[in-house]
Amino acid sequence: MAKYHLMVVLATVTAAVVECGATLASAHDEHGTHAISAGPAEIRDAWSPPSPPGIGTRAVYFTLVNTACAPLKVIGAESLDFAQVSIHESSTRNGIAMMTPATQLTLTAGETVSFAPGGLHLMLMGASRNFHEGEHFRIRLIFDDQDSLVFEATVGGAAAGGNHDHHRQHKDGHPDHPLAETGGS
């Protein structure tokens, strides 16, 4: 009887791991939306508006999906192409536009959050160079469990493209440096 219960428990755990397990994929859905996923997170259509030459600050927009069965906490971001990356939220209070930094962002299991103009976005400051329409740069989202997800943002409108590369870093093993390969397409 105990052996039967152990088999039921193992089957249940296996099903949960398959349902909520770590995946690593890059694909386009039926609408042409480009998405990358790794472990507990999926990022769709990362882009950054073009900016005039000499402006070292830019915003990045995308959709973040928690594909895990548990909360996902984003505690920061970084990029080798920018001196500083932070999560910001734009809002309007009493007719005055404001931008407030956020130290972390928690997504419940299965939750989708849009980083979009007029709301949440990544603010990148201190660009190492000018980026032109169609070029890409890499960003790493850092989670509270020390895992991270590296994705590319395309300079241009939301239709200019999406993510073209991804790496998931785990506590126990890191690629050489997935942020090092940046630049053009």
Automatic annotation (TrEMBL):
Organism the protein comes from: Mesorhizobium alhagi CCNWXJ12-2
Name listed for the protein in its UniProt record: Copper chaperone PCu(A)C
Record-linked Pfam families: PCuAC
Transmembrane segment boundaries: none
Residue segments, region Disordered: 158-185
InterPro entries, per the entry: LpqE-like, Lxx211020-like, PCuAC_sf
